[in-house]
Amino acid sequence: MDFAFSEEQDLLRASARSWLAQRYPLHRVTELADSDTGWDPASWRELSELGWLDDDLGMLELAVLAEEAGYALLPAPWWSSIALAAPVLGAGPDRPTTLAWAEPGTPYLLDATATTSAAEDGTGWRLSGTKVRVPDLTMAEQVLVVASAPGGLGVWRVAAADAQIQPTSATDLTRRLATLTLDDVTAEQVCVPGAAEERLLAVRRRAGALLACEAVGIMQRALDLAAEHAKQRMQFGRPIGSYQAVSHPIADIYTALSLARSLAYRAAWAVDGAADGAADDVDEAVAVAHLSAGDGAVRACESAIQAMGGIGFTWDHPLHRFYKRAQAIAAFDGTARSRRAEIAAALLD
Fold this sequence. Notes:
Layout: H1 7-23, H2 26-33, H3 42-50, H4 59-72, H5 78-89, E1 97-100, E2 117-120, E3 125-135, E4 142-149, E5 152-159, E6 164-168, E7 177-191, H6 196-232, E8 234-235, E9 238-239, H7 244-275, H8 282-307, H9 309-312, H10 319-330, H11 336-348
Parallel strand pairs: 1-4
Antiparallel strand pairs: 2-3, 3-7, 4-5, 5-7, 6-7, 8-9
Helix pairs in contact: 1-4, 4-6, 4-7, 5-6, 6-7, 6-8, 6-10, 7-8, 8-10, 8-11
């Protein structure tokens, strides 16, 4: 069986990388990350025109885009809209959208126990409660909120303008977090009570697979930055890449990247297959890919920082921003320990 990308998917990758390089060079990413808004709202229309939000994109196409988005460190609510909101809605949203599920003490998707409540008042639904660590909330125009109602957990859509939004401290300024407070806010039901668990499982699978692909893009960028520096930086009349203390860690990045890339692509394929009932190992595939790529991206950035010496540790160099995105990816919906336990249970139970 041929697992290579198709010609159309390769063209999609080339188009995405070209647009991102032109629209988001690293100095532009830095400007946006340090700005008040954190992104350029005009990019949403551009993403739509480029087809990044199309409903007919499969997981393999989204995997290609996620990898390139990680390589460029795209500062836009594309991942939250496509990976968090789309599986709940059943289609890609037409506006920047995110999902609010976490509450104090219950940060993980499958452990959601919403104290946020939904109630009907005869004219419609109204929501009250608080959600924490909501990704891209300050960029979103609408929010999908996991809440409890008679019958179980459901999901409701609220306008971001109707809620109280408080930005919170986050490692990655290109993907910010915020607290959402709802006080008897008008809401539209998008998932009936008792059906949210299945949607959240779909979110977890897609989000984990696409984050693994993002992490692969980060690893590739760390490798490129470190290798280029090692070839150009001279010490004692020789490029520093000729010394084993520099070249071996860079080679380790390449080795880890090759494994992580294969596992991330496998996870995307498994999520695609699970939607058609053709993959029964999807959760194990996603957990393995997320663990390999997430932790691999953190280590790749650390090795690249070390290889680049003093430059790698400076605030002005963009590498630390990739490092922070890698840390955020590795910490999403679990830890390395919890993912290893999940993998062990899938293989041994």
